[in-house]
Amino acid sequence: MQRTLVFDSLTVGGVNRARKVHVTATGKAVNAARAITTLGGAATLISFLGGDAGRFVARGLDAEGVPHEPVWVEDDAPTRTCTTLIPKDGPVTELVEEAPPVSAGDVAALEAMVERRLG
To answer: Between helices 51-64 and 28-38, what is the axis angle to 10°?
Structure first.
C-alpha cells in the first residue's frame, strides 16, 4: 500500500500538516498486473496480503478490475505501507516499512496457487 502526503513545507522534528493525502494499492507486482490488464493483456496477481492494509489493496484491485488471487497470511500481519512525503519546497522522502517474515505455510500456499494457475 502506498500513502503519499503532500506538504506546503516540511520541517523535520516539527508538526507538519499534509494538504493532500493519496492512498493507493501499489507496488512492483501490483503495478505490473495493472499495466498488463490496462493494455488488454491477461494477468493474475498472486501475492501475500494481510491486515487492514491488505484488505484495502484487495478492494482497490477489485475496483480497478485487476485479477488477483491473494494468499491471506496466517497471522494476518498487515501488508506493509510505504509512505512518500512530498514537500513543495524540498526533496521527496520515502519511508519504507520492513515486510514481516512469511511463514512456510504461506509460502507453500503461494507456490500451490502459482502451480495451479500455470497448469
So the answer is: 10
pLDDT in tens, 32-90: 999 999 999 999 999 999 999 999 999 999 999 999 999 999 999 999 999 999 999 88
Asked whether the beta carbons of 6 and 86 are under 8 A apart, the reply is yes
The DSSP element (H or E) to which 3 belongs, if any, is: strand 2-7
Q: Measure the CA dihedral 81/86/87/92, to 10°.
A: 100
Rounded CA separation 28/13 (Å)? 31
The second-level CATH assignment, the architecture, of 2-118 is 3-Layer(aba) Sandwich (3.40)
109 vs 111: CA distance, rounded Å: 5
